[in-house]
Amino acid sequence: MRVTATVNGRERDADGVWECESLLTLLRERWGLLGSKNACEQGECGSCTVLLDGAAVCSCLVAAGQVQGREVQTVEGVDDPAVHRAFADEGAVQCGFCTPGLVVAVHGLLRRNPAPADPEIREALAGNLCRCTGYEKILDAVRSAAEEARS
Amino acid sequence: MTSTEHASRVTGGVGESPARPDATLKTSGEFAFASDLVAEDMLWGATVRSPHPYARIRGVDVGPALATAGVFAVLTHEDVPGENAYGVKVRDQPVLAVDVVRYVGEPVAIVSADSPEAARLAAERVVVDYEPLEPVLDPIRAAHDKSLPALHENGNVVRHQRIRSGDPDPRAEVVVSATYTIGMQDQAFLGPEAGLAVPAEDGGVDLYLATQDLHSDLEQTARALGLAEDKVRLTMSGVGGAFGGREDLSIQVHCCLLALRTGRPVKMVHGREESFVGHVHRHPARMRYEHGATRDGELVYIKAQLYFDGGAYASKTPVVVSNGTALGTGPYVVPNVELDAWGVYTNNPPCGAMRGLGAVQPTFAYESQMDRLAEALGMDPVELRLRNVLTEGDRLPTGQVVDSPVAVPKLLDRLRGMPLPPSLPSGADVRDLPGGVSNTTHGEGIARGVGYGVTIKNVCYSEGADDFSTARVRLELVGGEPLATVHTAAAEVGQGIVTVQQQIARTELGVRRVNVHPNDTSVGPAGSSSASRQTYVTGGAVHAACVAVREVVLHRVADEHAVAVDALTLTDGAVSLDGEVLADLAEVLDTAVEEKREFHHRPTFPMDDEGASDRVHVQHAFSAHRAVVDVDTELGLVKVVALDCVQDVGRAMHPDAVLGQIQGGATQGLGLALMEEVSVSDGRIVNGSFTDYLIPTVLDVPPMRIEVLEEADPNAPYGVRGVGEPPTITATPAVVAAVRAATGRELTHIPVTPTRLLGLDGEEQQ
Amino acid sequence: MESTAPAPVVGTEFLRPATLREALEAKAQHPEAVPIAGGTDVMVEVNFGRARPPALLDLTGIAECDEWSADSGVVRLGAGVSYARVITELADRLPGLATASRTVGSPQIRNRGTIAGNLGSASPAGDSFPPLVASDASVELSSVRGARRVRAAEFCTGPKQSVLAVDELITAIHVPEATGPQQFSKVGPRNAMVIAVCSFALSLSPGRVGTGIGSAGPAPLTAPEAEAFLASELDGWWESPTPLADSVVRRFGELVAEATAPIDDVRGSARYRRHALAVLARRTLAWACAEGVAR
């Protein structure tokens, strides 16, 4: 089938999409947007997080056909220097596999809530697993990005 | 910034915390992991795996698979051109099963097709005729029961190692004993196994992959392919975490076989379910310990029997047995030791390397024993540890003298001195309570506990392995500015070795710009990113190569200015004599300087039959953890409130990365204590997904207070002491001890799930 | 580099109705079609290769399903309403369901997953069941043949089994608004992102006690004896709410535990589940009464 969607502000389409294909596969294999990662295939890790019409979702659980005519924002389209810089500067990146999903999730969080308290950050990021950092430096990065965005 | 570039101090050297060179690409999503690789005309590979823990293969029919649309090749063991056997320690594992399968998930055939779906479908259509056999599943029986079928030529014992030291019949006034068991832990790295093999015109193959050890993979892959090692070229792609799970081969040979057969690039990527059977796990263990002590708390003896279930193939089992034995009595002086460790073959999933290799299991047991002993003696657990702790110059049970500072007393003192978290306020947010947002308590049933854990872990390879790394460093002018390029095969698995290499080059060569060449097999081996060794050995090699490059540079200036080379320094982009600049580095680099060096650490020696060795390990590392937990004593749910750590790292090469290692390591240890267990039933993994194999989320991890000591090891480059493993090891016993303190329960099995915490895991009383 | 698009292997149809009418017609014509909304269950099966549905029936394009409305004390929850919206928009009217929704998966899952989808998967561990059962909600099932209502307690008939006919879709859930305290509590071995080891919901209103039990039997359960016991204990209580006697709270817990039929599985033992449900029943009752006292 054919799927057309607005991805990172640009209209994209694909032909011959398998009807059971996930948005994640569509993004990665057909549109070459490899920033969204596949780590669990079941919405448990958050590595494939994208914004669908502005809401954070796991792209592995969205059927490709469901994005027809809708807006998708992937990590490639997250123009949020404060978040990017904070992740690099605070040491929140180790292997980096979870990082793109976290960047999207944090971008979404701070847009909704520019000054989240720690429990709110934790609840908002509970769906983004990280196996390397122990999350401490990720929390530092979110606090720092929030502060920078406010100042 | 001062007026001239070379007069400014070069920043980002050893001891600072410069940003990782790969951080920007990783945050933008542009960093290419192995699963992101693509090539024109690429095919996809898939693996046909055994559904049985133990079975004879009577036949394989690839016909229906070959007839599937889009399929290009279906290969079995008959298509393995080289030696159909591999293994990191023992070559006992077939690339593709021949006449028998020994675990659920063992590769039997491989297929390639023009889409992942087609490959998966074709794999389902390979018909394998199995004759199921009675599997060997109990590791203790595997060790001792000769009536069981031998799973390999030499029987079912991979390694049995003893330690006998001191008086064989010691007398103690106080004796405590218990049996401890530990479940199978998964590395659960987020980036699944992946690789892309591209056939080359010379009949060889280029493999782009995620691994911990390029050269170990190269050696094993070339042998299986029947190709000379220069025909198989491995290049590191982005690695999505490793933690030991990428030391053994996974897709390497399969991917190359398919590429060579089809003449097309072939990509293989594991899904999460396949990843759970596609790599080794941490050995489950059963450990009986008996500790004897004097009434005033001095250890008299330890007797222990440890069983490690290695599963179907040896992998790192021999090393797990080695570490479990040599480190099995902990960071304590124990005059009399009688310890036996067995690593065995069974038909369970293969187990091998995971962070804290072979030390995680005994540390849980002996630290639990120290708490038990403290209780029996009516002593403070920290006091008991301090009373028995190793110091420099003491002998380990192997006879090895500890020849560098042992900071354990300081670690415990500092830890004990750290402030405790405030007690729970009434009306606390549910996110701060056991159960979290699941809303299981509003404060009912909560008890707080505090627990400690200490460990000793070897760093680098041990027992006589020639442990070394290779570095090539090139210094040249690029765009009019000096640029150093460092080339090693050291696997960057997230830990930050890529940054450390840059830092060393900056410090030794006084240059600002340092490139780290992509890791590949065109430079000599670096060994694996494991055993907390990469900063030690590759750091040592980069240091040595930089020093050699510097010598050449200084000689050029010494010759031109007719001064003694020893008097010259290379700092901040210039060569100076007594603080006066003689030459800008740029002036000296009319031709590039390139040097290659290997760094070998001091030799180590195998243990003998009694466990004796003058130097089993080249270095030991120590950490201590204190955990504070709130336990819902009625529901068995735990909230870790604090997980504080003091660790001696010798030298903090990159202080931020050191913290990251401690925080991340501790989190994996917390996971093992409370939730992480690969459940195996009749040899089959029953929870191979992130829905059922749980790792800690950000709501499970507490703030961590960390102090880092730097007591240099005089024998190590920069005085470094391996960082990555000890915190993983100590977090587990500390958390469990805290839960015990809160509940008074024995808790001899980890992970301590709610069911186990309450002792409700037995049969239901009707 | 060229894209390496996977080719379709098994023919599947992707049905994308724009109206409810079209959806019901599509389901009638393609009874084998698997309805998909948030995809949080369907796509897992597909991704793991456990299901290759011959057709997907996408419900996310149907505007009528995305709405909720309240009328005469009953909320009609359209099938497309996500957990996230229940949490932010319905916490006052349906506090039990909102509390349960907050325990579902991650924010990403809650943004996407729906209550109707949770019911459709018919897992005894589904987090929506206990609060819906406790408040005696009903499920609206529609087909071209017409619409019918089934009590939430009778919807799921076993693991992954429900009364849904092959040509039917869940179109809405009718949930009575809370007229008294509601609580939900769920045990999982992690502080977030867990499937229930067991869960319990309690709904109190003058003259009615509702319970809902998750993950302790082949289907979501209620505890009728516990309900009857507590209802009689609460007779007259509403006029002047006071904390209940310990013996009452304890007895309620016992009766809830007795109503269960749990099994041992990888997530927990039957013994644990029975024990934990008694604890959850006691605690949620105490919280509900405290709320009643505070009112």
Automatic annotation (TrEMBL), chain A:
Annotated coiled-coil positions are none
Q: Which UniProt keywords apply?
A: 2Fe-2S, Iron, Iron-sulfur, Metal-binding, Oxidoreductase
> What's a single GO MF annotation on this record?
2 iron, 2 sulfur cluster binding
Iron-sulfur recorded as keyword: yes
Which InterPro entries does the entry mention?
2Fe-2S-bd, 2Fe-2S-bd_dom_sf, 2Fe-2S_ferredoxin-like_sf, 2Fe-2S_ferredoxin-type, 2Fe2S_fd_BS, Beta-grasp_dom_sf, Diverse_Oxidoreductases
The yes or no answer to whether the keyword Ubl conjugation is present is no
Q: Which Pfam families match?
A: Fer2 (PF00111), Fer2_2 (PF01799)
**Record-linked PROSITE patterns:** 2FE2S_FER_1, 2FE2S_FER_2
- Give the matching Gene3D superfamilies: 3.10.20.30, [2Fe-2S]-binding domain (1.10.150.120)
Q: Which residues form the 2Fe-2S ferredoxin-type domain?
A: 1-78
Q: Which PANTHER family does the record cross-reference, listed alphabetically?
A: OXIDOREDUCTASE WITH IRON-SULFUR SUBUNIT, XANTHINE DEHYDROGENASE IRON-SULFUR-BINDING SUBUNIT XDHC-RELATED
From the Swiss-Prot or TrEMBL record, give the protein name.
Answer: (2Fe-2S)-binding protein
Q: Which organism is it from?
A: Allosaccharopolyspora coralli
UniProtKB/TrEMBL annotation, chain B:
Which EC class, in a word? oxidoreductase
Q: Which GO terms describe its molecular function?
A: iron ion binding; xanthine dehydrogenase activity
EC no. given is 1.17.1.4
Key words of the record: Oxidoreductase
Mind telling me which Pfam families this protein's record contains? Ald_Xan_dh_C, MoCoBD_1, MoCoBD_2
| Classification via SUPFAM superfamilies | CO dehydrogenase molybdoprotein N-domain-like (SSF54665), Molybdenum cofactor-binding domain (SSF56003)
- Specify where the region named Disordered lies, as residue ranges: 1-22
Domain of life from the UniProt record? Bacteria
Q: Which residues form the Aldehyde oxidase/xanthine dehydrogenase a/b hammerhead domain?
A: 28-134
Task: List the Gene3D superfamilies.
Answer: Aldehyde oxidase/xanthine dehydrogenase, a/b hammerhead, Aldehyde oxidase/xanthine dehydrogenase, molybdopterin binding domain
Descriptive protein name: Xanthine dehydrogenase subunit D
The organism encoding this protein is Allosaccharopolyspora coralli
TrEMBL record, chain C:
* Region forming the signal peptide: none
Give the Pfam families listed for this entry. CO_deh_flav_C (PF03450), FAD_binding_5 (PF00941)
What keywords would UniProt list here?
FAD, Flavoprotein, Oxidoreductase
Q: Which Gene3D superfamilies did the record assign?
A: 3.30.465.10, CO dehydrogenase flavoprotein, C-terminal domain, Uridine Diphospho-n-acetylenolpyruvylglucosamine Reductase, domain 2
Q: Which SMART domains match?
A: CO_deh_flav_C
InterPro entries per the record?
CO_DH_flav_C, CO_DH_flav_C_dom_sf, Diverse_Substr_Oxidored, FAD-bd_PCMH, FAD-bd_PCMH-like_sf, FAD-bd_PCMH_sub1, FAD-bd_PCMH_sub2, Mopterin_DH_FAD-bd
- The chain positions of domain FAD-binding PCMH-type read 1-180
What SUPFAM superfamilies does the database record attribute to this sequence? CO dehydrogenase flavoprotein C-terminal domain-like (SSF55447), FAD-binding/transporter-associated domain-like (SSF56176)
GO molecular function annotations of the record: FAD binding; oxidoreductase activity
Q: Which residues form a coiled coil?
A: none
Name-wise, this protein is Xanthine dehydrogenase family protein subunit M
